[in-house]
Amino acid sequence: MIEYRTSTDALLPEHVHGFFVGWPSPPSPSTLLALLHNALHRVVAIDTETGNVIGFIYAVGDGILSAYIPLLEVLPAYQHKGIGGELVQRLIEELREYYMIDLCCDEGLTEFYQRFGMTPVTGMVKRNYSKQAGRSITGQTTVQKECAISRVQ
Ligand SMILES: CC(C)(COP(=O)(O)OP(=O)(O)OC[C@H]1O[C@@H](n2cnc3c(N)ncnc32)[C@H](O)[C@@H]1OP(=O)(O)O)[C@@H](O)C(=O)NCCC(=O)NCCS
Question: Which is deepest, 20, 80, 142, 151, by most CB within 10 Å?
Answer without folding.
Answer: 20
